[in-house]
Specification:
244 residues; alpha+beta; 6 helices; 14 strands
């Protein structure tokens, strides 16, 4: 019945109007454009390369969640953040999935498996490509991926040579037997999103206490004094992910 529809629309419009001031509220200022696309070609970077927007997000998680490393799937990052005043709505457009933050404790081996899974499609795009903070790694594009998936497309094992190498956490070589705390979203770290089931059943230290956007807002306001600055000036990041 059309009358009911009109009523529903009215309620929705009223709700949107109520939240509009909050959405337009400035949360800070970007002194540089935070990029997920290549400024030279316009092509998307975030699903197969390091980029400044991804570094900004992973840095935010690392600081706010207080963990050793951060792994974020490139597919969870959308719009760029333009230079200038940033509103809450701008953050929602860049991170539209309503992801919740999590921290888990896992072995270095599991982190290596995740990086290998993330690099398995390279040079093609993959939503599970791993953007990182607190660590660096190298992808050897000449080595074909040996990641094996189960019938559902989830990670099963690595069947041969790793294409990921030179993994460093906090400046030190990754120790596959050591336990590390890994921050990110519940999507990848808890729910096995993008096939990342190597983390299933890990010890959960933080689970869904904050949304990604709220964590990012906290980072901008409490850690950066409201200004996202020159450290994110290079669209291609600062050398966390090396490709050879």
């Amino acid at each position: 019945d059309g009358g009911d529809n009109a009523k529903v629309q009215k309620v929705i419009s009223r709700e949107i109007a109520k939240y509009e001031p909050l959405l337009q509220q400035p949360v800070g200022e970007a002194l540089v454009q935070l990029r997920s696309n290549d400024p030279k070609t316009g092509e998307r970077l975030v699903r197969n390369n390091e980029c400044s927007l991804a570094n900004f997000v992973t840095d935010a998680f690392k600081k706010v969640l207080d963990c050793d490393v951060v792994l974020v799937n490139g597919g969870s990052i959308r719009n760029e953040i333009k230079q200038g005043v940033i509103t809450y709505n701008d953050l929602l457009e860049a991170f539209p999935f309503g992801n919740m933050c999590a921290v888990i404790e896992v072995s270095g081996q599991k982190i290596l498996e995740a990086l290998e899974m993330g690099a398995s499609h390279y040079p093609d795009e993959f939503g599970g490509f791993c953007q990182v903070a607190g660590m660096e790694y190298t992808i050897n594009s000449k080595i074909p991926s040996t990641v094996q998936l189960d019938e559902k497309g989830n990670f099963y094992r690595i069947g041969g040579i790793y294409r990921v190498s030179d993994v460093r956490i906090g400046g030190k070589p990754l120790d596959i037997n050591k336990k590390y705390t890994v921050g990110g979203t519940t999507y990848a770290l808890k729910d096995g999103g993008d096939g990342f089931v190597m983390f299933k059943g890990s010890k959960l230290l933080k689970d869904g206490e904050k949304s990604d956007v709220d964590a990012i807002m906290e980072y901008i306001q409490k850690q950066l004094d409201g200004k996202i600055g020159e450290q994110y000036n290079n669209p291609y990041g600062d050398g966390r992910i090396r490709i050879k």
